[in-house]
Amino acid sequence: MMNKVHFLIAAAAFVCFTQTVTAERKATVVTMPATAADEPDGHEYNIYNAQGQLVWRQGDSYRYEYVYNAQGQVVTKNTMSWIWYDMKYRKLNVEDYTYHADGTMATATQIKNIGYSYESKRTLAYTTYDDKGNATAWQYMNAEGKVWYEYKADYTYNAKGQMEKKVVKECDMDYPDVGYYLYEQYEYTYKENGDMESEVKTTYKTDGSVKSTSTQLYTFSDLDAAYAPQNVKAQADGANIVLTWDAVEGATGYVLTFDQQHVVVEGATTYTVKDIMVGSHDFCVQSIVNGEEKNASDIVTALVADPGMKAAQNLVAGTPYTMTEATDNGDRFYYVIPLTWQMPAEHSEIKDIRIYYNSSIYGEVYKSAGSSDATSYELKLDEYDVRAHDAQGDYAEGIDITVKVVLMYGTGEAEASNAVTLNPFAIVNGSDAIGEVATAEPQQADVMYDLTGKRVGHAAKGIFIKNGKKTLR
After folding, report:
1. Residues facing residue 470 across a β-bridge
2. How many angstroms separate the most distant Cα atoms in the chain?
3. Residues 284, 290, 292, 294: is their CA dihedral positive or negative?
4. What angle do CA 16, 300, 58 make, to 5 degrees?
5. pLDDT at 25
6. pLDDT at 96 (0 to 100)
7. In 133-180, at which residue ranges do the beta strands (DSSP E only) sit?
8. Is the model's pTM score more than 0.90?
9. What does the alpha-carbon distance between residue 277 and residue 90 come to, in Å, rounded to a whole number?
10. Among 2, 38, 169, 385, who pairs with 381 as Cys (CB 3.0-4.6 Å)?
């Protein structure tokens, strides 16, 4: 049970779903690396709801969540990325799908790397289809509507009408004279009863040589709405969550999925998740009947809070200065911001102290203070952190750096301290002063949005919406 990977069979899944399979049989698949030296993607499994629709596809570091329309087509796919230091998932990518009247896919709009400085938006526009509804041509377009890549696909079928091969060719529009070159290929085999037996995927380098090969082997299990556990409840109890559900007739056990866990519970309809991280967590329950994982319950959410998770207070930044350190690769130049803060009274056990700041290159990141009781830290920043770049990629003016201290407890991060904003480059060069000086109590950072509705950080300038009102920075 623990090593199976559940997979939604869709013969027309060229890049993403064209339609949802609603049959009562779903496949389990084991991914086989091409050679012993290849690294497999890790443990994966898929979870289906009472209607037989895929709702979660989960691996070691990600989870895909699917939303359907009344016709059973996928309209939204969320990619949740596991953040190891927070011990919970965050939304990384969102894909929204539209369809033609005949049910074939029209577009798939993707927003990637949500909340990061390199967030991007692109659209797949499907343009041509064969007589079976499979896309034979589609394009990638960026947010400005410029085509990045074009794809073409050829499909081969056996005498029973089953797809035996799919060959995809790509054209990079930055190099249109190169034309279409081999991108990837899929080969399928089937059992006598029509079930898919295997899928071999081969990807290629631009010179036509093989980049990687993997094989997926399939077996099938039956799904039915009656197998989905009902009345699933998740109740927080301190740092624990107690799960309960109704028994399913014929079930010998149940599988609980939450965070990165896939837990088998035998002979009980309750389970306690202990010492879970503070924050929101999603859970679902599947029954085990005849040794197979069946339809999942509805997804339930529980919120864990720790009253002892108090914030650091009175963060103050001293005057930045520069320093040089000798390394094996030569001298390294830094801008240094001296920081001090105070610890809260009567707090839970602190595991780590994190210094969050925004980098010109990487967006918001943090450094560990290296101690659970520190009240000061010298924040060393590279030049690429504190300076913007011009159109040629050369260093330009300095940027505002917003710094916060976050205490890390056993059950997660506390709220941030008050924020301090300063421009280290400008201060070192004598043309700026430290702003947003600390107050006596910890403060939440203001949440602001630009006029398009996109969330922005404190370093941004212009007209924004803050607390429902326009504000000028």
Report:
1. 465
2. 79
3. negative
4. 35
5. 56
6. 95
7. 135-142, 147-157, 163-172
8. no
9. 14
10. 385
